[in-house]
Design goal:
Layout lengths: L1 E6 L6 H5 L2 H10 L9 H5 L7 H12 L4 E6 L4 H8 L3 E4 L12 H9 L8 H7 L2 H10 L7 E4 L13 E5 L13 E2 L2 H15 L3 E5 L5 E8 L5 E2 L3 E3 L14 H7 L9 E2 L6 H17 L4 E9 L5 E7 L13 H8 L4 H17 L1
Parallel strand pairs: 1-2, 1-3
Antiparallel strand pairs: 4-7, 5-6, 5-7, 8-9, 8-10, 8-12, 10-11, 12-13
Helix pairs in contact: 4-13, 5-6
The structure holds adenosine-5'-diphosphate and magnesium ion.
The site of adenosine-5'-diphosphate has 19 residues, from strand 5, strand 12 and strand 13.
């Protein structure tokens, strides 16, 4: 097949970064007074984007299955590059850059051009990228998730809140904006976090009840009620240094657990009793269908104080770092199901192709 791979790639140097108008604007933003109190913001601007190594690995996986690949960066020229090259099908891993709907932009263009593609449509990617809209749908279907509210400014009064509260940006991923301080134990800490999120990320904060129990992440492959739940990955947060909260924060994801110094933080399959394992599988299948996700996704789950699995968030474009040393959870779960990197990438494509035929 003549396939295009749509992607966003991390810029390695400031010179490379400034070649993209979006990236140049971001650099202006991170150098501005608005964020000068938050130097960590500089490190996470491109956290959601893929490395050249990942893009090459996906391309190689598809080529090794006999496809001809056109690379299309999801930038200002993407529309013209798609109309000029006319791919038969698109493998989409583009995260986008601007706006709450940035993950929906390539899906929307592809829908407009009537080009079939892997993964969820523009509506589902948009909803999943707004953590409040996503939770509203889960709640409608009775799928457990923590209570929440959103705000775009600090709060005037403590309305008798139950602490701890967990504060995060309304529409980010890759642990952007999620630091040890995200767990607030009192009103002052809560307002400090709201101030940090709103001024640093230029978007509302979502404030959730803290879900205290074990954490899992669940790779899904397929469609409808037949979607496969790959072996569940448990995140062993007991290994996080004691002075840090047991959450999968930016510090843990990108600083403590590095290629050079791997934290043995993942257990796959998860070591929980059968009943909880099955409950997690069920809640993930229900979530996949409630949000009308297509082909693949990775769903984060935590147990609440009663050991009931709660959905934390849904990633319709899961991270797929190819090197097992990078501890990327979707490929990790696939390996435990007997699929190597090339096999799982092609399995996602096959699910999408099958879906268009049915
Ligand atoms: N309500 C919550 N209670 C407890 N921990 C949470 C809650 N929400 C998020 N977390 C922690 O923060 C991490 C990142 O949050 P998540 O919503 O998954 O953001 P991202 O989209 O950046 O992955 C989770 O993996 C979990 O460890
Ligand atoms: Mg997550």
């Amino acid at each position: 097949m003549k396939l295009a791979l749509t992607y966003n790639v991390k810029k390695e140097t400031p010179a490379e970064a400034s070649q993209s108008a979006a990236a140049a604007n971001a650099i202006k933003y991170i150098n501005s007074d608005l964020v000068k109190n938050y130097p960590e913001r500089i490190d996470d601007t491109y956290a959601e984007w893929d490395s050249t190594e990942t893009i090459d690995a996906v391309r190689y996986a598809l080529e090794s299955n006999g496809h001809k690949i056109i690379l299309i960066e999801a930038d200002e020229n993407a529309y013209f590059n798609l109309t000029n090259t006319k791919p038969e099908f698109v493998f989409n891993v583009a995260e986008g850059f601007y706006g709450a709907s940035r993950e929906s932009q390539i899906p929307s263009i592809l829908e407009m051009l009537n080009i079939p593609f892997t993964g969820s449509d523009s509506v589902t990617t948009g909803i999943c990228h707004d953590k409040s809209r996503c939770k509203e749908i889960l709640s409608y279907y009775g799928i457990p998730n923590s209570k929440f509210f959103i705000t775009d400014s600090i709060l005037e009064t403590d309305k008798g809140f139950k602490y701890p509260k967990f504060t995060k940006p309304l529409h980010e991923g890759s642990s952007k904006g999620i630091y040890n301080s995200s767990v607030a134990n009192n009103f002052k800490e809560l307002n400090d976090e709201i101030e940090r999120i709103t001024s640093c990320y230029g978007q509302p904060a979502i404030i959730e009840d803290y879900v205290p129990g074990k954490e899992f992440t669940v790779a899904m492959l397929g469609n409808g009620r037949d979607v496969k739940v790959l072996p569940i990955v448990e995140i062993n947060l007991d290994l996080v240094p004691a002075e840090f909260n047991p959450i999968y924060s930016y510090e843990v994801k990108w600083f403590f657990d590095t290629r050079e110094n791997q934290l043995d933080i993942f257990k796959c399959p998860a070591e929980v009793d059968d009943k909880i394992y099955k409950q997690i599988e069920k809640i993930c299948v229900d979530t996949f269908n409630a949000l009308r996700i297509r082909d693949w996704a990775r769903i984060d789950v935590r147990l609440d104080e009663n050991n009931v699995p709660n959905i934390i968030e849904i990633n319709p474009l899961p991270g797929i770092l190819p090197d097992p040393k990078d501890n990327s959870c979707y490929p990790k779960a696939a390996r435990h199901a007997g699929m190597d990197y090339n096999a799982v990438i092609n399995a996602v494509l096959n699910e999408a192709v099958k879906r268009y035929k049915s």
